[in-house]
Design brief:
By secondary structure, the protein is mainly α. It has nine helices and no strands. The protein is rod-shaped and about 75 Å long.
């Protein structure tokens, strides 16, 4: 069974409204509605709070919903996220060093300047994306 249906059944069985649950776990009623309609998924902290509030085990809430398990794996995989951030920083450092070393050659060729600037902008965008994703 999907997590949304499980959450709704557990809430109704507990005799609570979406507003009641939202107040208790400090989210909006719209967020509760989105979880129950599977427009988005709760994070692991909210799943634990819902489990405690409803008196339902995490195993019961999560078993059988592959999308929810995949969402939790992606949202809690900080090691992979850190590796991507470190790689983006490393690539930017290497590119800056290469541009400094080959400054004389790059400055004499218009196409190399355009290429170097494009690569620099692209790598900086990837770095900023990783930083923003981390926050």
């Amino acid at each position: 069974m999907e997590i949304g249906k499980m959450l709704k059944e557990a809430r109704v069985h507990s005799g609570l409204t979406q507003e009641d649950v939202a107040d208790k776990i400090r989210v909006t009623r719209q967020t509760m509605s989105n979880w129950e309609n599977e427009k988005c998924y709760p994070d692991i902290i909210n799943v634990i709070e819902l489990s405690n509030l409803y008196g339902v085990s995490l195993d019961e809430l999560l078993k059988g919903d592959e999308k929810m398990i995949e969402h939790l794996e992606q949202s809690t995989n900080t090691v992979n996220s850190n590796k991507k951030l470190i790689a983006a920083i490393g690539v930017n450092i290497v590119l800056v060093l290469l541009m400094i070393l080959f400054n004389g050659i790059i400055a004499q060729n218009r196409y190399l300047i355009i290429f170097a600037m494009s690569v620099g902008v692209l790598s900086t965008c990837v770095l900023f994306y990783q930083i923003i994703k981390k926050i």
